[in-house]
Design a protein that fits this description.
There is one protein chain. With 295 residues, the chain is of the alpha/beta class. The protein has a single domain (3-262), classed as Rossmann fold. It is 37% helix and 14% strand. It has helices spanning 16-27, 39-53, 67-71, 73-79, 114-142, 164-184, 210-216, 227-238, and strands at residues 7-11, 31-36, 57-61, 96-99, 146-151, 189-196, 249-252, 267-268, 274-275. A 7-stranded parallel β-sheet has the order 3-2-1-4-5-6-7, with helices on both faces. Strands 8-9 form a two-stranded antiparallel ribbon. The protein is globular.
């Protein structure tokens, strides 16, 4: 298959990580179908990609909380592009699905409503499941391989106030990734996830305060993530260099999941006061020679 006939379907592509993923694939010459609920922002993103990389980007406005819309994305994406004149195939259905759409309406647990809970799980998990099923069925019917990459979050393994619905959805997405990998492997469809650390995306849908950003963005590498950090990892997982990788969750978070650098060093000595390091690394105490008796 030529690069120009490769077709990548990206949800949540109007801004942030989804837009970076769409742009990264478009830069390789692939066809891209960008999906988002924000019609104006999506139109701007599609126009920008066409200007930068040529006309092979299309947009679909969809509310992925709608089950039918999520399930039919692969079919809609195929109809959004002209036939691909390639010996491999003539119908431009997607080869890669990137489930990047997600919402994070911060709500304290004691104020959570069923509607907020359900919409968060519908967009963040159910939509990814339905889009994957529709995508996989299209590939299986055409006897073609493919790749799915889900965009997770460090919230899958680290709870935080106001995010019970979001953290639960991202933990579920990780298990969905593994479950899909197990069932779709025999059809040569690989399913993996990228789990970003804190990445500023300036999203009107998912706004965060400066105080929140400061609290969650610490990591051993000492900087916040960028959308392109995540896009490169997605492209690797979707490509042939990762053709024996499935069911994996790749943490692209500056080491945030590994541990925190925010705590001070503190090694108590035998007296209970602070010492400069653990006992094995402290300098040995100087030996003392008994005083000679005085005349």
């Amino acid at each position: 298959m030529t690069t120009a006939c490769r077709h990548v379907l990206v949800t949540g592509a109007a801004s942030g990580i989804g837009a970076a993923v769409a742009g990264d694939f478009a830069a390789t010459g692939a066809r891209v179908t960008a999906v988002d609920i924000q019609a104006d922002a999506l139109a701007r993103t599609v126009d920008d990609l066409r200007t930068a990389h040529g006309p092979r980007t299309a947009g679909i406005v969809a509310d992925l909380a709608d089950a039918d819309a999520a399930y039919s994305l692969a079919r809609q994406a195929g109809a959004a592009h002209p036939p691909c004149h390639d010996a491999y195939r003539a119908v431009p259905t997607p080869d890669v699905l990137v489930n990047a759409a997600g919402i994070y309406p911060a709500v304290p647990l004691l104020e959570m409503t069923p509607e907020t809970w359900d919409r968060t799980l519908d967009v963040n998990v159910r939509a990814a499941m339905l889009a994957t099923v529709g995508f996989a069925r299209a590939l299986i019917a055409e006897r073609r391989p493919g790749a799915v990459v889900n965009i997770g979050s460090g919230a899958a393994v680290r709870a935080r106030p106001g995010a019970a619905h979001y953290c639960t959805s991202k933990a579920a997405l990780e298990m969905l990734t593994k479950s899909c990998a197990v069932e779709l492997g025999e059809h040569h469809i690989r399913v993996n996830a990228v789990s970003p650390g804190f990445v500023p995306v300036d999203s009107a849908v998912n706004p965060v305060t400066d105080a929140y950003a400061d609290a969650v963005s610490g990591n051993p590498l000492g900087r916040r993530g960028r959308p392109d950090d995540i896009a490169r990892a997605v492209r690797w997982l979707a490509g042939t260099d990762a053709d024996w990788v499935t069911g994996a969750v790749v943490r692209v978070d500056g080491g945030a999941t590994a541990g925190t650098t925010a705590l001070p060093l503190h090694w108590p000595d035998s007296a209970g006061t602070a010492a400069p390091g653990p006992p094995s690394l402290r300098p040995a105490a100087p030996s003392r020679t008994p005083e000679e008796p005085r005349p």
